[in-house]
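Lecture 7 notes: from sequence to structure.

We start with a single chain of 179 residues. Read the sequence below before looking at the structure.
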Amino acid sequence: MEVFNYVMVLISVITGLAVTQLLGGIAQLIQEPGRVRIYWVQLVWAAANFLWVVAWWWFEFSLSRQQWTFQLYLFVIGYAVITYLRCAITFPPATAGFEDMRAYYYSRRGFAYGLVILQILVDFADTLLKGWAHLIALGPMYWIGMPALGVAAIIAIKTRSHIYHAACALGFLAYGVVF
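Now the structure, written as tokens:
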């Protein structure tokens, strides 16, 4: 077995758990209609997080040409853990007792957007690990878009504006779809 394939087994498990968190949250809302008040912004975030997970897992294939070290392995596992946490915080556990997803969303926004900022920083490092040619190939959409998303996340931590949070969620989703 090649080193990359060996490394990606654990990364794939963590990524699968992230997707499971998102799909489990959606399934819970479907299975128990009316138990909680749904907040559409949270659903948009679930879609944006799903796209991020799928895209990140796909782009990690570029690391198949890397010389693997234990430090690189830990770095990629760290990225996967951040991704998992972003997905896990999207929906509360069934036992948490939240009946209003809007209240849940705003109660966790600092942590959620903090993870977004951390993930953007780690993603830039991850992209550099894949080489300058990879970074250049991503184009202005990446070099301008990622810092803009980071600034948007910083503002989202500070504000409770429902309009801003709706725009932010839609912006992140649009970025994921277009990218």
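The mean pLDDT is 93. Keep this in mind for problem set 3.
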